[in-house]
Amino acid sequence: MSEVYAVRRGLLRDRCAAVGSAAALVSRPANVRYLAGGAPPGAVLLLGPDEDVLLCPRPPTGDPADGRTDEQLRVDLLSVTGGDPVVAAADLATAGGAESLAVEEHDLTVARHRAMASVAPKLRLADLGANVEQLRIVKDEEEIGCLRIAAEITDQALGELLESILVGRTERHLALELERRLVDHGADGPAFATSVATGPNSGRGRHRPSDRRVEEGDFLSVCLGANYRGYRVEIGRTFVIGTAPADWQIELYDLVFAAQRAGREALVPGAAYRDVDRAARHVLDSAGHGEGLAPWTGHGVGLEIDEDPQLAPAAMGKLDACVPVTVEPGVHLPGRGGVRIDDTLVVRPEADGGPELLTITTKELLAL
């Protein structure tokens, strides 16, 4: 893996050189982990023309959740307790003869930016922008393998819950149980706060679980995902509790399922991000549910649960192969409830079978 991280850092170094900066400072934790293999709390990565250095405010704990730092990478511990590694990085870059330093302005606070300028007044600070995030969009097969395992763990946890008695239990209790099951099956933890929504709450995006209890005839919508070696996936499913679904529930479910299928089928290399969104959104809009839809149909996943690309009406760009994304349309009817269906898939060319579905829990409308 050391070679993989070295190649990634080399690609970023080339991008920096193209805009006239021989050094770069990466401070966003997911970006540090992508380039260094591990991201101990508070660590930043300095890419220099000759050597790369991971600066840590305290000794790494060795927690697997932080990743495993590239053994070929130099690691410096700050000598001053409570010191800021970005300030130490600016000082180190100046000592190494750098005249400019590209920084992640979207991650740094104004106070940290000013502190760097104060210790290295002659160092020109430029904006690195989203260069690392752009490198992260296309995943290699090892990254996809981690996502695949995360999806298997997620499917296992959800499948076990569906076999238990649900009536009378609260949304909050079910969410906590799902997160425990994720860890039991090998996850580092949940990829994001698990959402469980019942009855009139169902169908809401990222609903915060409440003390409402599951009742007969409810829609039950869940959204969860596992974090495995830093890589995160997402699945969303909707079920009916206890009895055969009502006609309106079947009609709404079939509509959202059709929208989700349209979005999945649009996932081909070269497809515009907004065209994928349009494919799913058109189905719901044509049925009179255009108002109140989420501002996006899906998004990228990886070291963060919500990363580029965004599948949204105004999104610019086109899909590449080996890009994992979610497709997650939903409709919520105020006072009644709603449906969400959410999968994580990897974009693949038709010659390779089309989009690879990672989350495989059934999308049949089950009565539990």
UniProtKB/TrEMBL annotation:
Pfam families according to UniProt: Creatinase_N, Peptidase_M24
Q: Where is the Peptidase M24 domain?
A: 146-348
Task: Provide the GO MF annotations for this entry.
Answer: aminopeptidase activity
Q: Which domain of life is it from?
A: Bacteria
The UniProt keywords, alphabetically, are: Aminopeptidase, Hydrolase, Protease
Residue ranges of region Disordered? Answer: 191-211
Q: Which residues form the Creatinase N-terminal domain?
A: 8-138
Name of the molecule in the record: Aminopeptidase P family protein
Q: Which organism is it from?
A: Streptomyces poriferorum
